[in-house]
Design a protein that fits this description.
Type I pullulanase, eight-stranded parallel barrel, GH, six-stranded antiparallel sheet, 647 residues, GH13_cat_dom, glycosidase, Immunoglobulin-like, 16 helices, EC 3.2.1.41, 21% strand, alpha/beta
Length: 647
């Protein structure tokens, strides 16, 4: 313990900061036709030996090469050979002890990530990769969260057996339910649904699944190699180049289908404290309390020290690498509340410089499991410090989530839709993405709706359907699922939902299925057609949302589009004022969570029916309405004021 405390002091000392902060961006392996260069940052090492192997597991090194000590704690070796597909690791001698480690900066690895691989990245590009790019922006961002294995596991999805649970499933064109040729699944289904971005749960190399076994399952929040794709999603986990090519093929296919790709990244902790970080420089990359106790704000055994210069630099360069090499369009940060605001703002700044302001999406979870031992008076990127974050860094808004359906952590606690009391003001605050100072008494410091991810379900906790199953009757569940969707899809902010929420996805009531069997977690494509009524309702809401400019606006003063807010017990209403490009100058929205029909009075003007509790496509039918009008129990009513054409 004393050694940990002394190391912590040393890493903050003037001596260390002056002598060991490496400013280059070329750590790891650079491999091309001109040769291969290995660089490892390992200050204080007495010697480093580079071991070269023919395979990613087993076999002995065919060559062992002493590396040269360079400046700033870097060890180097250059070969004039293109060592593409050669595997390697390092034998480090420190304090007269030897430790074998893979490369923390590796871009490729063998099976289970235990041995790094040199890779000429140009040789991994699929055909046409140089022309790959994200599709043009839609009127609104609508994010759909899914897991590689969950997406294609079910036989009903119609994916080829050899591609199920793999990156390659996303390259399959026009899949249908049980191959019936009629009912779309896969990307065609998502295109019809209207989502614009696919957020893919962890697809870097993680440690909780044995890549040699096809049917092991985990969500993957257990990083081993941050810059390497996960091998269990590849058709061949033993050859490190295959997973790279197949991930690129997946992204290329998703882009071609018209979606952006958002990557779920987990820089807040590692799978184990016995990591490549720890083996190359003990305790530098981890937080420790002043008494030597290991910080565990992640509840996963450790917290990464994002505030330390070389750790912050590592995370920034990793994000930029994924954006550059894999054409990733955005990043969802797991437990972002454990990272510091300076790091997050720097990531935002660098992405903006390279790709344009706000072009790459950034958002994350603004919380942690428990306290963390952050140093240097840095501020955490959590809800309390949202005012310190760039306006284009978003956070998942649990305030909105819990106001609508009730606590995600207390299964029987209800929200506005399912019987919770005194939720009306929280709903009104949610409508303006917690930006209207008149209603925001709970979530201070929000600059604009661009900072708010509006949602009611994600992979964590019970699905929305299961939550409703605990808090309502079976007869009410479908109505209330529609109402929940109608509420968050008529709130400002960035829309987000869990795959399958739109067809009543269930996990049998389980709240945390990260390591449960794939049979519990898989997407049941049959349910998408059994509950087609619900899917169609989501489809209509998404399309309608894109027509309401006052809700899509993410700018600082966009809350001013929301006027005429009012409330009664279990009922909330408001008006959205739109710009001249919208079909309707005004849109009136009423949420009726009560168990009885109510009558709504209208202000002057001609209105048409856009959506009610049964049909979200009414806006296509030009149905004029007159006051008073009925709002069905446990449902929404959306009306549009016809725009008077200018002469």
């Amino acid at each position: 313990m004393e050694n940990i405390i002394e190391l912590k002091k040393y890493y903050s000392s003037k001596e260390f900061l002056e002598n060991y902060i490496y400013e280059g961006n070329d750590l790891g392996v650079e491999c091309n036709e001109n040769g291969t260069t290995f660089k490892l940052w390992s200050p204080g090492a007495e010697s480093v030996v580079l071991n070269l192997y023919e395979a990613g597991d087993g076999c002995k090194a065919y060559e062992q090469i002493p590396m040269e000590k360079a400046d700033k704690g870097v060890w180097c070796f250059h070969s004039y050979k293109d060592l593409h597909k050669v595997y390697y690791d390092y034998l480090i001698k420190r304090d007269s002890k030897e430790v074998l480690t893979a490369d923390p900066y590796a871009k490729a690895a063998g099976v289970n990530g235990i041995r790094s691989m040199a890779v000429n990245l140009k040789k991994t590009d699929p055909k046409g990769w140089e022309n790959d790019k994200a599709p043009q922006k839609d009127k609104e961002r609508v994010v759909y969260e899914l897991h590689v294995k969950e997406f294609s596991f079910s036989v009903s999805g119609g994916f080829p057996p050899e591609y199920r649970q793999k990156y390659k499933a996303f390259t399959c064109k026009h899949t249908t339910l049980n191959n019936d040729g009629i009912h779309p699944t896969g990307l065609d289904y998502l295109k019809e649904l209207g989502v614009t971005h696919i957020q893919i749960m962890p697809m870097y190399d993680y440690g909780s699944v044995d890549e040699t076994k096809d049917y092991e399952f985990n969500w993957g929040y257990d990083p081993v190699n941050y810059n390497v794709p996960e091998g269990s999603y590849a058709t061949d986990a033993f050859h490190g180049e295959v997973r790279i090519t197949e991930m690129k093929e997946m992204i290329q296919s998703i882009h071609e289908a018209g979606f952006g790709v958002i990557m779920d990244v987990v820089y807040n902790h590692t799978y184990s404290l016995d990591s490549w970080f720890q083996r190359t420089l003990p305790w530098y990359f981890y937080r420790v309390f002043s008494d030597g106790k290991v910080s565990d704000g992640s509840a996963c055994g450790n917290d990464v020290a994002s505030e330390r210069v070389m750790c912050s630099k590592y995370i920034l360069e990793s994000v930029l690498y994924w954006a550059r090499e894999y054409h990733i369009d955005g990043f969802r940060f797991d437990l972002m509340g454990l990272l510091d605001t300076d790091l997050m703002n720097n990531i935002r700044k660098e992405l903006d410089i390279i790709y344009g302001k706000g072009e790459k999406i950034i958002y994350g979870e603004p919380w942690s499991a428990t306290d963390t031992a952050i140093e240097y008076n840095k501020k955490l990127a959590n809800k309390d410090n949202i005012a310190l974050l760039d306006e284009n860094i978003g956070v998942f808004c649990d305030n909105t989530r819990d106001a609508i359906k009730g606590s995600a952590l207390r299964i029987r606690e209800a929200g506005f839709i399912n019987g919770g009391k005194d939720k009306e003001d929280y709903i009104l605050a949610s409508v303006s993405a917690w930006c209207d100072p008149k209603y925001n008494k709970e979530f201070k410091g929000v600059k604009a709706p661009s900072q708010i991810v509006t949602y009611v379900s994600a992979h964590d906790n019970q699905t929305l359907w299961d939550k409703l199953d605990y808090t309502t009757t079976e007869e009410e569940a479908m109505r209330l699922n529609k109402l929940a969707a109608a509420i968050y899809m008529t709130c400002q902010g960035t829309l987000f939902f869990l795959s399958g929420e739109e067809f009543g996805r269930t996990k049998a009531g389980h709240d945390n299925t990260y390591n449960m069997p794939i049979s519990v977690n898989r997407l049941n494509w049959k349910l998408a057609w059994k509950n087609k009524e619900l899917v169609d309702y989501y489809k209509g809401l998404i399309a309608l949302r894109k027509q309401i400019s006052g809700l899509c606006d993410k700018s600082e003063n966009s809350y001013k589009h929301i006027t005429d807010m009012w409330k009664e017990s279990r009922v909330v209403g408001f008006t959205v004022n739109n710009d001249k490009n919208s079909l309707w100058s005004q849109v009136k929205v009423i949420y009726n969570a009560s168990k009885k029909d109510i009558e709504a009075k209208l202000l002057g003007g001609d209105f048409e029916l856009l959506c009610d509790g049964n049909d979200s496509m009414l806006w296509k039918k030009n149905i004029s309405v007159k006051a008073p009008i009925k709002v069905g129990k446990q449902s929404v009513l959306i009306l549009g004021k016809k725009r008077i054409e200018e002469i």
